[in-house]
Amino acid sequence: MERKTSSEIRRMYLDFFKSKGHVVEPSASLIPQDDPTLLWINSGVATMKKYFDGSVVPDVPRLTSSQKSIRTNDIENVGHTARHHTLFEMLGNFSVGDYFKQEAITWAWELLTSKDWFGMDPDRLFITVYPKDQEAKNIWLETGVDPTHIIEVEDNFWDIGEGPSGPDSEIFYDRGESFNNLKEDDPENYPGGENERWLEIWNIVFSQFNHEPDGSYQPLPHKNIDTGMGLERVVSVFQDAPTNFETDLFLPIIHKTEQLSGKKYGDSKEQDVSFKVIADHARAITFAIGDGAIPSNEGRGYVIRRLIRRAVMHGKKLGIDEAFLFKLVPVVGDIMKDYYPEVLGEKEYISKVVKSEEDRFNETLTDGIQLLNNLIEKAKADSSNQISGKDAFKLFDTYGFPLELAKEYADDENVNINEEEFENEMQQQKNRARSARSTSVSMGVQSELLTDLKTESKYVGYTDLNVDGAVLKDIIQNDQLVDKVETGSAQVIFDVTPFYAEMGGQVADVGEIKNSDGEVVAEVEDVQHAPNGQNLHTIKVLQTMSKEESYNLEVNRVFHLKVEKNHTATHLLDQSLRNVLGDHTQQAGSLVEPGYLRFDFTHFGQVTNEDLAKVEKMVNDKIYEEIQVSTVETDLESAKKMGAIALFSEKYGKRVRVVSIGDFSIEFCGGTHVKNTNEIGLFKIVSESGVGAGVRRIEAVTSQAAFEFLTSEENTLKETAGLLRAPQLKDVPSKVEQLQNSVKDLSQQVQKLENKVASEQAADIFNNVETIGNIKVIAAEVQVSGMEQLRQMADDWKNKQLSDVLVLGAQVGEKANLLVSVSEQQVKNGIKAGDIIKQIAPKINGGGGGRPNMAQAGGSNPAGIPNALKMLQEVLAN
């Protein structure tokens, strides 16, 4: 077998199935579209679900892909096993109701063994089959597989609950006796068992049943083929690598990490784990951020944050104490540039996000260590010598502090951690994450009725909002095709329709259906695309409607035109954001309603008021310029050459519509638009906010809604002017400034009075000096308004050199504050303010820190201040 690069293997696989009539589907974004059941795209078939469950019928029923995927359900195994990854590529070929077992098996064997393709030795290949699937077994035998290389395994049945399921065949490659890690008589020592010798490289699923809600298995109306071949595993076979990490997909990252750390891969097992974790996680975060994910505290953002922090901690184990992960992003991009050139194109943005997160983690890591020290001291003080699992989990969850590292710190102080309680907290978090997702099944049951509905239907709403004589071709009521409908709700398809079906964020049209006498027989409430692309109207039936009769279809014109204005404004907004904030911004979702528009976009950092003003002005300038909006239909490649921007949630076929607003904006779009930007009239941003880490949301209005919004704002301003007694609206700012200056003057007067009170208290308490051992101490609870007054008293104490140590406590509202100050001489003697505050702060249910000569703490228990001051005796005596 000839050695091949990962790029060659990927291309060869796709070319093989292309030669068998398959269309190559590009690798989809790792962020699922319109699928609440998935956090990430986690397999090749995940992007094909809409075809397999019948919600969409593909143009061609034979598909193949190399799909990037992420799985993080057992992230702890990464680096410790030979082939466990968070990000991986899944090669696959798929048949949607076309070919089945005969072709799938024959082609698999041809690809694997033919000298023109992979050229693997047939003697090294082993096949497992489902015992009841003798049909598949016989086909394998017909291809020439040695009968002794076919093993029946009861687990060879793919089933995820309700939905498509069926038997499968797994293909294993025998790496030879030198890879055998088990004894001869071990029950797992066989192809298909848990061992290192026989490596699973391909799984072929024969999806032929529907797993029904009642638990039964019924034959699918359309049988499918779903296969998955892990690229990383196959590359390890071709490159004769002990593990996946010694291949060209990972080694360049490992070598770069060697340069950054000064350590050598292969020197020790423990060190190698860190190299592998870093290499794996660097790939995952690079691709995930490139696809729009941003580090955060929830959802997929939390996964990215956790991967970055794990990698950083393993970098520290290798002696890397500065930000380094961002330097691996270009390395990942270079490895994958053959099939994923966009990674190198986005490397600066991805690197910026990674470095920012690394820097933030290094800061929180310092805070985490301080909190851990407080917990250790608390455990020693209460003689339990144990940190609770809840506290350890808080360290992990809030500060990214790994349990293993916390244990190392605690062990040094003879303190242990309640690991059982920690695991309980971890499990509860996983349960919360699961319940936060949709409870929908991961793949729906095929609807034979809709899938088989091949009625031709033409949409003419781009030019016509009324159609006379539209023929009613199909009526669906109660999930059955009927010839007529008299009342209630129904779904209908016409041979021609002006009603827009919801797509790309634009809501569906609404309107009326009339008979030949002009009577309204139904109201159109919603329009969606059927599996074969027809516009499927959901209607409220008012009078009897019959199949094959003609009707007049009338779109609500006012509703439609308002949506058009907002949709075109969305395109102007999208381009304006790119121009003002940078090309890294990507649409992350949109909603175009008649009353307003909502636009989500990726942007790392705050959007300033100045930038928002620039964006708003740019959109309005384009409206005032009265630019023609033109639409052309062309092929996908020609559209790309025009420079058209692909929007976030769209799925593009061979023919696409390109909407151009002069030369300002050129985008792929299937929606409806105004003919000239002047029809929009006015654009006004209503709000801008964050909806998640790295994702911002703008809500805006146009035309009449924009005028009404501005009128409301003006009325509010007039009311404010009245309250301020401002003669004109233009005088409001100066009146507000006068009020602010008055408030500032009053605040300064209050501050002076509080400082005076603090000085008077200081005069009293500074006379009360006690001696603990040979240390002079002033300790008292005082009445002040905040920490500022405590610091002022400490400054006075320092200038007067009244004692060696000063400890002050104060209740401010419902909170407690403590301050400790130590003279320079006592600092030299080893007494440090930070050490004292750490030991007494638990009495107020708080924590803190600071410099050796001054430290402060805050807590939630003001009643504990006397106990904290009293504990000073014990602290200084030791």
Polypeptide structure, described:
This protein is α+β, with helices and mostly antiparallel strands and 878 residues long. It has five domains: 236 residues, 2-Layer Sandwich (BirA Bifunctional Protein, domain 2); 164 residues, no CATH class; 107 residues, Elongation Factor Tu (Ef-tu), domain 3 (Beta Barrel); 151 residues, Threonyl-trna Synthetase, Chain A, domain 2 (Threonyl-tRNA Synthetase, Chain A, domain 2, 2-Layer Sandwich), CATH 3.30.980; 112 residues, Roll (Diaminopimelate Epimerase, Chain A, domain 1). The protein is built from 24 helices and 35 strands. Strands 1, 2, 3, 4, 5, 6, 7, 8 and 9 form a nine-stranded mixed sheet that branches. Strands 13-16-20-19-18-22 form a six-stranded antiparallel barrel. Strands 30-31-32-33-35-34 form a six-stranded mixed sheet, sandwiched between helices. A hairpin with a 2-residue loop joins strand 28 and strand 29. Helix 7 packs across helix 11, helix 11 packs antiparallel against helix 12 and helix 12 packs across helix 14. The longest helix has 35 residues. The chain is flat and about 100 Å long. GO terms for molecular function: alanine-tRNA ligase activity; aminoacyl-tRNA deacylase activity; ATP binding; catalytic activity, acting on a protein; transferase activity; tRNA binding; zinc ion binding. Keywords: Aminoacyl-tRNA synthetase, ATP-binding, Coiled coil, Cytoplasm, Ligase, Metal-binding, Nucleotide-binding, Protein biosynthesis, RNA-binding, tRNA-binding, Zinc. One of its GO terms (cellular component) is cytosol.
